[in-house]
Amino acid sequence: MNEPYYEEVQDFYTSDAQKPTRKDVNVWPCTRRSCRSSSGVSFSCPYICLCFSLLCLIGSLLGHPQCLDYGPPFQPPSHLEFCSAYETFGCCDQERDNSIAEKYWDIMDYIDPWGHKLCGTYIKDILCQECSPYAAHLYDAENPRTPLRKLPGLCSEYCSEFHFNCRSAISLLTSDQHIQECLETNKTCFCNLLHLHDEDYCFPNVLKNTALNRNLGLVAEDRKGCLQLCLTEVVNGLRNPVLMVHANDHTHRMFVAEQVGMVWVYLPDGSQLEEPFLDIKSIVLATPWIGDERGFLGMAFHPKYKYNGKFYIYYSYMDKNRVEKIRISELKVLASDVNKADPRSERNLLELEEPAANHNGGQLLFGVDGYMYIFTGDGGKAGDPFGKFGNAQNKSTLLGKVLRIDVDGRSPAGKPYRIPPDNPFVSDPKARPEVYAYGVRNMWRCAVDRGDPVTKKGKGRMFCGDVGQNRFEEIDIIVKGGNYGWRAKEGFECYDTKLCQNSSLDDILPIFAYGRNVGKSVTGGYVYRGCESPNLNGLYIFGDFMNGRLMALQEDKKINKWKKQDICIGSTKTCAFPGMISSYNKFIISFAEDEAGELYFLSTSYPSAYAPHGSLYKFIDPARRAPPGKCKYKPVPVKTKSKRIPFVPHAKTVLELLNEPSTTQPLKKSSTSTGAIPTVSSKKAKKTPSTKIKASTVKSAPSGKKRQKIKAEAKPHKPKHEEKVVCISRTTPAPPLPKKKSSYLTGTKKLLPKKAALAKEKLGKRRKGSRLKSSF
């Protein structure tokens, strides 16, 4: 078994409970001679005002694509009629685009034809910055704790031109008193209020910056090509969480299993039910010894669970004769409580004697054919020393195999399952009919590809991570009758020279293998097919248990090969979103997929079956999300008899770390590279004390079998980040506009007459309907 390290995360744009409340803007007002702070202290304007603006931005987040609702930008599902410059990628859907258009025409109702020609483009461009993929940076909205600008950040030259030509029209864009006072003072004071510290991100420079726009909307990569993804914490306090599965019953519940033999229910709102779904810890063979691979290892729900209430489990146990075995059995849910299994309903399907304590396999899953697939280990020890060719190459034993059975039938021989008639070795008298594929060492975590959401290509492919002996870890795609080479081969190379030279071996090569310079114990993952992160579609995401490395494989169909890229977590710039975290527990035990297809992983900081240091994390792509509303689903309500325990996050988010008072000099950005220990912060960050224990220093397990050496960390290191200064409050960027039409302009510099004051009193009343016109 591989053990994971866990990273805590929350979904920042789907959880209403996480949305920060908006605050009113608090900007220093400028008079003709001074700028006054909120504390009442006056300073010379504009220079001191500018200094405070710059001070406010010292150490602030570097600009990154983000919308005013704090989520990543997206591709609008339909054409934008008004802010068409952002119809391929930005922060507005058609509804928001229509709202901005309505606001524009409400403003233009107060401007005569000459004003239309002179200021229409300025006003349209400024209003449409809400749709910019950099809207959050333009409005200082990247940090929910900072105030939101009433107007976007404008570049100096553009702001000067806008002030010169359309000064009087600005009062229709915003009613903010501070801006109005600076507006009446002079151009310098006004433009200082709209100044952005980084000129690359102000409008319109942000549109011209090729470095910012070259890969806009794609998964971000660092200089080494490491994919920049983020995490949210979903569950914590777990004891070696070995899996998370869903029942595919439209309830969107998550069932999380611990190695000790407990399965917990988590509801769509993030809460946990106080009573477990299943508790068989009195039967499961598990110990507190670090690295012990025995325990509750697998679980799968019947494809028709919604109707028959059946599910299946895979666990280690010791029989009456003190013989260690693997048991695969069927259970049913209680008729009286859909959140409780009936332990008395257990029906044994298959038992296998384990000659050693390691290499226990543990994966159960159902293929698209409706049959159940069982993944067993080779029996343990080292080098598969059992028999002439080892268990994995011996088709007459069930160890070191992929098995396929029909759980809905019974065989004539009295077995509690049926053999599918098209199993590859049913007519081979020297092979067990259950065998579907062979030559595997210890496949730890396999998954079935859902297929592309549109084309369905790839549907049904079965991916597995097979843990290597001492040189290579590999990723395989399971095929009917396939021989995966062990112990003749390890990865792409020979392990047993004599067997490897056997010309009769027609083994299936891995789609990817890596050596010990990359990792030491693969944890198989999933092909992403969810909705929320469209950039990730088709990526096979997996990891390494020993060093916490996260990786992705992308298929190149032209050459029929898979390209590997590392995944980095925790960049201050990339993951500065609400709910995002910057560290995760080192030992990656398993990956998981929820009912909607979103991807997770489970890990722990201390790989012992009884240590409550495990967590469940969700992957988020901060570069692009699905359009708002596309990924919404309505879970089927579930009656709960057990008490609900609200989720309480343990990990600090990136934004929380950024807002902590700085006690040291500014730090370099910290990111979790897949090539390093995930919980280690940047070099200048303080080192958090941790307890490290080597398995070799611990007493051996009762079985007396040798354990794999593993370093366990009691707590993840928390990387430090630059201090961020809270500056501005939050409200809508532009106020409602007057309902009645008025058209009077007296000059190019003074567009509004005295009657405009009457118009401003009527702000808040909106025109009915939306008139989409050209502003030119």
Write a structural description.
The chain is α+β, with helices and mostly antiparallel strands and 776 residues long. 13% of the residues lie in helices and 23% in strands. The chain contains 14 helices and 32 strands. The strands form 9 sheets. It has an 8-stranded mixed beta sheet with strand order 23-24-25-26-3-29-28-27, with no helix packed on it. A hairpin with a 5-residue loop joins strand 18 (462-466) and strand 19 (472-477). The termini are far apart.
Topology:
Blueprint: E1 34-36, E2 42-44, H1 47-57, H2 94-108, H3 113-127, H4 135-138, H5 156-166, H6 170-173, H7 177-185, H8 187-193, H9 205-208, H10 210-213, E3 227-238, E4 241-245, E5 254-258, E6 262-266, E7 272-273, E8 278-279, E9 296-301, H11 305-308, E10 310-318, E11 324-334, E12 337-353, E13 363-366, E14 372-375, E15 401-405, E16 435-438, E17 443-448, E18 462-466, E19 472-477, E20 489-490, E21 493-494, H12 497-500, E22 512-515, E23 522-527, E24 540-544, E25 550-556, E26 561-569, E27 587-593, E28 599-604, E29 614-620, E30 644-645, H13 654-658, E31 692-694, E32 711-713, H14 756-761
Parallel strand pairs: 3-26
Antiparallel strand pairs: 1-2, 3-29, 4-5, 5-6, 6-8, 7-30, 9-10, 10-11, 11-12, 13-14, 14-15, 15-16, 17-18, 18-19, 19-22, 20-21, 23-24, 24-25, 25-26, 27-28, 28-29, 31-32
Helix pairs in contact: 2-3, 5-8, 7-8
